[in-house]
Amino acid sequence: MGKAETTLEIPLEISDVSGQKVFSVANAPTGNTVGELVHEMLGKMNLPRNDASGAPLTYQARLEREGRHLHASERIGDALERGDKLTLQPNIDAGQGCC
Amino acid sequence: MTLTFPYRFALVICGEEGNNLGTVVAKRDWEPAHEWTRFFHQRKGELALGGDGSASVLPLWEHTLGEPYCRGYRIQIVQPGRRPVASDFPITHFRDFAGAVASVFVGQKKLREGETYTYMVVAHPAQAEASAAGGLSVTNVSPGLPVQDASLDDFLRRGQPSGVIDADDMPVFVHRQVLDEAAALTRAHEGIEVGGILIGKLWRDVDANEIFVEITAQIAAEYTLGTNVKLTFTAQTWAAADAALRLRNKGEVPVGYHHAHPVKTWCKGKECTPEKQKNCHLAKDFFSADDEAVMRAAFPRAYSIAIVANDTAFADLTFSMFGNQEGLTQPRGFYVLEEKTSGA
Fold this sequence. Notes:
By secondary structure, chain A is an alpha+beta fold. Chain A has helices at 34-44, 76-79, and strands at 9-15, 22-29, 58-63, 68-69, 85-95. Chain A is elongated.
């Protein structure tokens, strides 16, 4: 399991917060950014892209191997290794409706 | 797990006199109904715990008018070697979308402000969509339901009902200490929305054909941003909760979240009279669209539940529970277990 800089695509495993939705990705392009990966996976995993008001939700990808959240601008080939596990974690508001 | 759509649904909006104001392709989040269908049939032993099958959304034709008019929709799951399972949902599932379309029509002067409108749902066969070239190649490798075997009767003997228990709902058992900790957290931060992650176990009683949840503990949410009207769960919140869950190492899984509604602070800000506060719809069993969005994004499985601590000026702290009921988030009852959680 080495860095994937010399390959064009690497396999990854991506889950949601609950850990009950898990998808394996066979061909994550090493030239793409983490943000691009997250954006595409939200659709594949049927996770909401917007909050209740329609504003875009921000998800961060947490890399289990390093125990850190990746920056959206990091390149897959630089930050990730084959078989890495990511968890998509949203910043999201619970809140009051309206009096 | 992926839903397929052999039909395309649309809403026909009509004005007060039945005049057709326009037809709009229906947009709705089908996932909660899909999850509910899957879990309902897993509870009844009709769908494998680990198998998702192939699910599709089908129209239910209106009895009198027939195709293309719908009286609702059906989610059908086809599984290898077993008969398909299905759940039917009413046309009212489109009501919120119809309301949103009506608002747009008001803006476009197709509908007058306050004018009554009706809507019909129609469905037509969908054109086969060409699969997009390139893109990620993904496979759903989600784990099966993490159930262990137990006796439902044994839990029912020990549980004290709270709220209205619907016999069709998945039974939920909450240890008293979870509620006590949620109450302590709420009181310690009076006037501010605080919360935590609910963790527990899924049990299956094969004889009773039922799956139920035991909430064994709560993990106070860290790295949140709380005000009197909202609670922001950050990516760091989920990471910290996951770390705490792993440290406990008791075979528990995340089953939902709890948070406080500081109703008395809201009412104070609005200068509501005591009488008005007692009748306020926010005082009990209130779950906002934002609250639902947290469930959808973080706890999408149909067994997931949410607890709200209602902190009002006129009564002791009360708790409301919410869960997926036939594809919609609804208030529901639960059972309280007085004994200490074993976590075993």
